[in-house]
Design a protein that fits this description.
The complex is a heterodimer of chains A (1026) and B (440).
Chain A lengths: L1 H18 L3 E9 L10 E4 L5 E3 L5 E6 L5 E6 L6 E5 L8 E3 L7 E4 L2 E4 L7 E4 L1 H4 L18 E5 L8 E5 L12 E4 L2 E2 L26 E7 L2 H4 L10 E6 L10 E12 L11 H18 L18 E2 L2 E2 L13 H4 L3 E13 L3 E13 L6 E14 L4 E15 L11 H6 L23 H4 L5 E21 L2 E20 L4 H6 L4 E24 L3 E24 L14 E24 L3 E12 L8 E12 L4 H4 L4 E15 L11 E3 L4 E2 L6 E2 L3 E4 L8 E14 L4 E13 L2 E5 L8 E5 L2 E17 L3 E18 L4 E3 L5 E3 L7 E4 L2 E4 L6 E3 L14 E5 L4 E11 L2 E11 L2 E3 L1 H6 L47 E3 L2 E12 L2 H6 L4 E15 L28 E11 L1
Parallel strand pairs in A: 1-7, 13-16
Antiparallel strand pairs in A: 1-4, 2-3, 2-5, 5-6, 8-9, 10-15, 11-12, 13-14, 15-16, 17-20, 17-54, 18-19, 20-21, 21-22, 22-23, 23-24, 24-25, 25-26, 26-27, 27-28, 28-29, 29-30, 30-31, 31-36, 32-35, 33-34, 36-37, 37-40, 38-39, 40-41, 41-48, 42-43, 43-44, 44-47, 45-46, 48-49, 49-52, 50-51, 52-53, 53-54
Chain B lengths: L1 H20 L1 H5 L6 E3 L7 H19 L2 H10 L3 E3 L4 H7 L8 H23 L10 H26 L23 H18 L11 H14 L3 H12 L21 E5 L8 H6 L6 E3 L1 H8 L11 E4 L2 E4 L9 E5 H14 L5 H14 L10 H15 L6 H7 L3 H5 L13 H6 L10
Classes of the chains: A mainly beta (1026), B mainly alpha (440).
Chain lengths: 1026, 440
């Protein structure tokens, strides 16, 4: 009551204050370009009720009680929202407005374009709203934000690998990752991890601080990527960081702080059978198996869970099922994790110099103990005009990221999550004497989560920078030379104390290993560019250039085994010390050129050519030539549409071109190699002496993988561009696919890298952006995208299988990376046995009965986002979705093994649905170790529909009224709350349909060993000081 | 003013084009960690290194965890801790061609063979004064021995396989080659062993091949091909060197590095013994079954061999490797003794007392009562039992029971087709001329 009264007093005092003075503001609203008046636009004094609407002459007049300084906001249909700071009212205020879409600048390779003259299929991502999403790396923030870009986060551990694919999968072994270019530098996005992380990868993109990003452009079609030639076959993600503006009114300081919490959604987590249930299943399986195969000598009498007093062959029983305890390990490794982030940046510019300084600190704890990620980032961008013609620029980012790592992986080396999930629930965590118990295959969970005993961490120090000098030789002709460097000092440490399996059993006295990878990309480029508008009719521009680039990896590692005690952790104190060093390097030299011609602003032509020479190929196949041509026709500007009120934009685009790929192949892939890895002693007393062995078969004919792409696109704008639609159809055909071709192992080798096979990708993309409502102090915008891509192996000499159990297979005429499984048709009601489809009808179930049953690529995917603003409030939410993709529930395969894994693995509660009596209808067969019920690893029963709709993020923000913030001399204060992954709709029975135990190409889509992406909340404040 | 800018611009352009002139050099990058395979063996040092590499293949690839585990599991005396689905396929004698580890064995054997072939192909033409003809012969003989060992394992595991005697230069050379029969492969092994015998010195080096090593492997081969007279001869050639090859009383671990060992392979901290992790640590994959443990502990059966299995809580630990750098015994003196016992019992005119003596050499040193068997059948049962206990943790028994036709009776492995493993499906996929073994 008292508080309300007090509030009323405060509000009234404002009102009274406002009554005192009245100001009249008048002026005209005009189109910035056409200089025509704008009618029916709304203009308001921000933070007040005062406003007006412009008349047919564009005239407006507002009477306000507010005193300067205040902000005028103008909302015109089809125009960008404009805010103007008014410091004093002095006569008329004429306001030019910029039409939406007109002259929106899009960054392209080696240049910029207005959206109007754009030919390629390029999506500009809303970087501002994407980057608040609490994941470490900006690539993970792109899910659902652009058509044609499929983003999947494989794990809930911060800083781990993310899969980003633009327009499908064009390659098998040469990589499908897009090229990432940050301010002109081709940065490394391959994980540098050398230690065993169990098929997991760290993401080098997590080094980059998203807060420094100004814009992200996704280049998709041939015309857009051609200038990147061999680098761009999988699409290009262009990142531009903030640089400040020339002629700024003084420094702008931005401060952002956020704090949040994340956790795994409880009700989606795995449900395990209790100790008694586990024992019951194992006993049942034991006896059933004994009946099925008497030679196993398994009977009720010698069942494993029998009274402890019954000793058979010297082994006591484990106790009756009902005597078993249940131990919960998952809750010991999962936690509510904190995420926090602080960003401070300053930008300014005068006539000759502009700069941006960004400082950032992010810390994210993983929901899986003890994983964590933190990053310090310093960014300094600086540009100065040395004189009238010369401009020098310096772009620099220094990043330090630290990762407390968790191991992934299935099987016995399986790490943190599996130790909790796969350890049988009936087995205690501690022995009666208080020591760590380790009865199953796995390490004790309390050891794994104790970094004093078991510690894997990585520190990456990285510099990404580009220094350039630009000279305007004559008007419109610019020469630019740049030197770029991406240097990563990547330090990995592993320590396993003598209490652990690795440091105490496999090796004694503790184990410590350190690896230092120095990875350097050096890049030098020269470009000569020209841009000219001739008599308003012809526009001509060209760019030619060359680029050389080298990538060098130098890895030094040392291992120490056997320490005096746990206080000694440096390798110098170890009794056994092993060290290693290796180095690899590749180089690339390129020449490129591009010509653009525009006629009357209606017809546009673009021709590009790039030649790349790669050190990875033999001299005769070294050079690849990649041309492209693109056309665009702005139909809207034709006479018949010029006056259309329905169409505000209509453009037809088409392109065709080629791009190459050689990204992920070995640096010396074409050469026959002898390795020095065969040391062996000459006698019993001497130690090992050096030995050699053939390691790689030569393929002197190895050459570029080439993708030819065709793209046709239509851009529509309706109703003054309140509705913008972009539609693309594409077809990509890849020849000479770089393939690690399996060869007969009787050759002494397993594979040879060769150009075999052809792959096609075809798809359609649709993006719709609408302004649903827009008024004086409110707006509602929606953006929706949907994409479909089908990747098919058009030609392949032999089917390729992947993963040690050959779960994944690529076959000629079929979709890439399909799951290759035995199809379980049903469980026989009478016998309880699984009935497997006998495809060839020979009465035997063997590998010829395996079939392709779907793959991890969706039939379609996309996102839907909405932004609603009302007065100071803003609300945004993003749904991402995928339909038709399959997931192999590997955890289920292991944990629904019919009790055959006995004491080595836990059992899922769903196993309790097994067949037990004739007539019972179930999909879970009778438990037995004999026959096909549980012995077929690749059973389709574990393959599930991975379609999902995810509420990726919801953000609610409130921008404090200017008159409040002015008191504190702040320009803008926005408080916000964000929820991430709050809703997930899926039929998948595991926690997260996007999870993949492996981040290794061609081995993805098996869900194991990884925590789900967390759900969470965070709160933040965004403060701008001018 | 303007011309100055143009000048500097032109200079910049020219400067920037400089890298182009050295483009070819810039793009020629030589491997750092490897060398080209153009000239792999050119002198003494490279010849020695190549032979060591072949031994490393035999030690670390051919005797991989998977190979030892599968063969030992097949004999039914151990349990798999891991309980992988594929282990169930092994113990139920229900292998399929798409099981991953088959590919591993297959590829490993041939990888080692390719290393040996490289030496056999390149070494004879090497001219280096430091490379004496004795050393050259020795190295060549060792390569023949390693090849023989690998083909022997291939044949007893997969039956008839393709025989390749030259190193791979082109994949095409090896495609389309049809399988030889198991007998033909064994004949190739014999031929390689005979070649090795002529080349190798008459010395004793337990982790490298010598004449004695050749005799030992040839004795084993003769047993598999039912040439019992020859088996006896070769076994006797080894055992006659009592100073260097004799069993030691009492039975004690390790079984390597002493006169117990005819041929063993060595490991180090860099190349650790994969067998160690098979039996040791929480991640161990194999444990002796109670039945085996009890036999080993029995004073009338296992005797001194009880140290091979110890109790730890409610499970048993197999104790053949002391550490992950310990050697793996491949041919032991005890095996030669038992080979001779079997050869003497099974040859055309059996030497029953000689056979019994050989058996009792093993029994005596293990401190179990001597056998008094007097018939061939009884002697063979004695030998079967001795081999079961003596090589309780080594990959012998499965091959022995298959070889002697006893797998059905002892292991209930009823389908003889399953005595030979399936050729990996992945191998047939890429080499259609390879025919799958019957029954798969």
């Amino acid at each position: 009551m008292k508080i309300q009264k007090a509030l009323l007093v405060v509000l009234l005092s404002f009102a009274i204050h406002a009554v005192h003075a009245q100001t009249v503001i008048q002026g005209t609203l005009i189109d910035e370009v056409t200089k025509l008046p704008i009618e029916e636009a709304t203009i308001v004094v921000k933070g007040t009720q005062d406003g007006a609407t412009s008349d047919s002459a564009g005239f407006y007049s507002i009477t306000t009680t507010a005193e300067p300084p205040f902000v005028l906001a103008v909302y015109g249909l089809g125009y960008d929202i404009k805010e103007i700071d008014v410091y004093e009212v002095d006569g008329r205020v004429d306001i030019p407005l910029k039409a939406v879409d007109e002259d929106e600048v899009v960054v392209v390779g080696y240049g910029e374009r207005t959206k109007k003259e754009l030919i390629g299929a390029i999506t500009k991502v809303d970087a501002e709203s994407a980057k608040t999403f609490p994941v470490a790396s900006f690539d993970a923030q792109l899910q659902g934000r652009s058509s044609g870009v499929q983003v999947n986060t494989f794990s809930g551990t911060p800083g781990e690998g993310v899969r980003v694919q633009i327009r499908g999968t064009a390659s098998i072994n040469a990589g499908n990752d897009p090229l990432y270019v940050i301010d002109g530098i081709f940065i490394n996005n391959n994980s540098l991890a050398t230690i065993n992380l169990g098929s997991k990868k760290t993401s080098p993109l997590a080094d980059i601080n998203p807060a420094d990003i100004e814009s992200i452009e996704v280049l998709k079609d041939a015309s857009a990527i051609a200038i990147y030639g061999s680098r761009g076959a999988n699409g290009v993600i262009l990142v531009t960081t903030k640089k400040g503006d020339y002629d700024q009114d003084g420094p702008v300081v931005n401060f952002n702080v956020s704090q949040g919490w994340q956790w795994a959604e409880k009700k989606r987590l795995w449900k395990l059978a209790s100790g008694p249930e586990h024992a019951t299943i194992v006993n049942e399986q034991w006896i059933n198996s004994g009946n099925d195969n008497p030679a196993l000598n398994q009977t009720y009498a010698n069942r494993p869970f029998r009274p402890t007093t019954e000793v058979i062959d010297g082994v006591a029983g484990r106790g009756n099922p009902e005597d078993q305890q249940t131990y919960d390990r998952l809750s010991r490794v999962l936690r509510t994790a904190q995420v926090r982030s602080y960003d401070l940046n300053v930008s300014d510019g005068n006539k000759t110099t502009r700069y941006y300084i960004g400082l950032g600190y992010t810390k994210q704890d993983g929901i899986l103990k003890p994983s964590s990620f933190d990053r310090f980032a310093v960014k300094l961008n600086f540009e100065t005009k040395l004189n009238k013609r010369l401009t020098f620029g310096s772009i620099n980012g220094v990043y330090r990221t630290f990762r407390q790592q968790v191991r992934g992986g299935a099987g016995q080396e399986g790490g943190h999550l599996l130790a909790a999930l796969h350890a049988p629930t009936y087995q205690p965590i501690y022995n009666p004497d208080g020591t760590y118990a380790r009865p199953s295959l796995y390490e004790n969970v309390d050891i794994l989560t104790n970094t004093d005993l078991y510690n894997i961490n990585t520190t990456s120090i990285r510099y990404v920078g580009n220094q350039f000098l630009e000279a305007e030789i004559i008007k419109d002709l610019k020469f630019r030379t740049s030197f770029g460097l991406d240097y990563n000092h990547y330090r990995e440490k592993e320590f396993f104390s003598d209490k652990t399996i690795i440091g105490g059993v496999q090796n004694t006295g503790g184990y410590r290993s350190d690896a230092l990878t120095a990875y350097t990309i050096f890049q030098n480029e020269q470009t000569l560019s020209y841009r000219k508008l001739i008599r308003d009719k012809h526009s001509l521009s060209f760019v030619i250039g060359n680029s050389i680039q080298s990538s060098t990896a130098d890895v030094t590692s040392a291992t120490g085994i056997g320490f005096p005690n746990n206080q000694f952790q440096q390798i110098s104190a170890a009794s056994t010390r092993i060290s290693s060093q290796s180095k690899s390097k590749s180089t690339l030299a390129s020449f490129f050129g591009r010509v653009n011609y525009g006629l009357r602003g209606k017809y546009f032509l673009e021709i590009a050519l790039r030649a790349d020479g790669s050190s990875k190929f033999n001299a005769k196949n070294r050079w690849g030539y990649f041309p492209a041509v693109g056309l665009a026709w702005r139909i809207k500007d034709e006479d018949f549409l010029k006056n259309s009120t329905l169409f505000s934009d209509l453009k037809l685009r088409a392109s065709v071109g080629q791009a190459g790929n050689q990204n992920n192949i070995g640096d010396f892939a074409s050469q026959g190699l002898i390795g020095g890895n065969g040391a062996y002693p000459d006698n019993l007393t001497g130690g090992p002496r050096p030995g050699t062995s053939p390691t790689q078969l030569a393929n002197p004919d190895l050459k570029w993988e080439t993708t030819t792409s065709y793209n046709a696109g239509l851009d529509f704008g309706f109703l003054k561009n309140r509705i913008l639609v972009d539609f693309n159809v594409y077809y990509k055909y890849t020849k000479d696919v770089l393939l690690s071709l399996p060869i007969p192992q009787s050759t002494g080798y397993t594979s040879i890298l060769s150009n075999q096979g052809e792959i096609s990708n075809r798809g359609i993309e649709l993006g719709i952006a609408t302004v649903n409502l827009k008024g004086k102090d409110y707006s509602w915008k929606t953006s929706f995208n949907i994409s479909r891509n089908v990747s098919k192996a058009e030609k392949l000499v032999n089917p390729l299988t992947f993963e040690s159990r050959e779960y994944i297979r690529t076959e000629e005429g079929e979709q890439l990376q399909s799951f290759w499984l035995y199809k379980q048709l049903y469980v026989d009601k009478q016998t309880g046995n699984a009935v497997i489809e006998d495809v060839n009808g020979d009465g035997v179930i063997n590998s010829s009965d395996r079939q392709l049953l779907g793959n991890l690529f969706p039939d379609f995917y996309g996102g839907l986002s909405n932004t609603i603003e009302y007065k100071g409030f803003d609300l945004g939410f993003l749904f991402s979705y995928q339909y038709g993709n399959k997931v192999f529930n590997f955890n289920k395969y292991i944990l629904e093994g019919g009790g055959t894994r006995d004491a080595s693995r836990s059992i899922l509660a769903s196993q309790l649905d097994r067949w037990t009596a004739p007539g019972q209808e179930t999909n879970t067969p009778r438990v037995t170790s004999v026959g096909n019920n549980y012995n077929l690893e690749q059973n389709s029963r574990y393959l599930e529909d991975g379609s999902f709709i995810r509420l990726k993020s919801v953000t609610i923000g409130y921008t404090l009224p200017k008159r409040w913030t002015n008191i504190a001399k702040l320009d803008k204060v926005r408080l916000y709350a964000q929820g991430s992954n709050l809703l997930l709709f899926t039929k998948y029975t595991g926690p997260d349909p996007e999870s993949s135990g492996s981040a290794i190409p061609n081995q993805q889509g098996l869900d194991t060993a990884t925590p789900p992406q967390p759900m969470g909340f965070l709160f933040g404040a965004n403060i701008t000081i001018r | 003013m303007k011309t100055r800018y143009i000048k500097s611009g032109v200079l910049l352009v020219l400067f920037s084009l400089m890298p182009l002139f050295s483009c070819k050099k810039y793009l020629d990058v030589k491997p750092y960690d490897s060398i080209s395979d153009e000239a792999p063996i050119v002198d003494k040092a490279s010849a020695e290194a190549a032979v060591r590499g072949a031994y490393r293949g035999l030690a670390s690839l051919s005797y991989s965890t998977a190979f030892q585990k599968t063969i030992i599991l097949s004999a039914g005396d151990v349990v798999s801790k891991n309980n992988a689905q594929t282990d169930l396929n092994v113990i139920n004698y229900d292998l399929r061609s798409d099981i991953g580890f088959l590919e591993t064995f297959w590829g490993s054997f041939y990888n080692t063979i390719n290393r040996a072939n490289l030496v056999i192909d390149k070494l004879p033409s090497v001219q280096d004064n430091a490379l004496t003809s004795d050393l050259k012969n020795q190295l060549l003989g060792e390569a023949y021995f390693i090849r023989a060992y690998s083909y022997f394992d291939l044949a007893r595991t997969f039956g008839g396989v393709q025989i390749f005697l030259t190193p791979t230069k082109l994949v095409e050379d090896k495609i389309g080659k049809v399988k030889s029969t198991q007998a033909e492969v064994y004949a190739q092994v014999l031929s390689d062993l005979n070649a090795a015998e002529a080349l190798l010195p008459n010395t004793v080096v337990r982790n490298r091949a010598t004449k004695y090593t050749v005799y030992a492997l040839r004795a084993r081969l003769h047993l598999y091909t039912d040439n019992f007279e020859s088996a006896e001869t070769d076994a006797s050639l080894v055992l006659a060197n009592t100073a260097n090859y004799r069993v030691i009383t009492p039975f004690a671990l390790p079984l390597t590095g002493s006169t117990e060992s005819v041929f063993e392979v060595s490991f180090s901290a860099n190349d650790i013994n994969p067998g160690f992790a098979l039996w040791n640590g929480n991640n161990r994959q194999l444990e002796p079954k109670a039945v085996l443990h009890n036999l080993l502990q029995s004073t009338t059966d296992g005797g001194g061999r009880k140290v091979l299995s110890t109790v730890s809580g409610s499970s048993f630990l197999g104790r053949i490797f002391a550490s992950n750098t310990a050697s793996t015994p491949l041919i032991r003196t005890a095996e030669i003794q038992l080979i001779r016992a079997e050869a003497r019992a099974r040859k055309t005119t059996p030497d029953l007392t000689g056979s019994l003596d050989d058996i009792n050499v093993i029994r005596t040193r293990s401190a179990v009562p001597i056998s008094t068997s007097a018939t061939v059948d009884d002697l063979l049962l004695d030998i079967e039992k001795e081999r079961r206990l003596e090589f309780a943790l080594e990959p012998h028994r499965w091959f022995d029971l298959v070889r002697t036709g006893r797998a059905d009776e002892v292991l209930n492995a009823t389908d003889p087709d399953k005595y030979i493993f399936p050729i990996p499906g992945s191998e047939i996929r890429v080499n259609p001329s390879l025919v799958q073994n019957p029954g798969y």
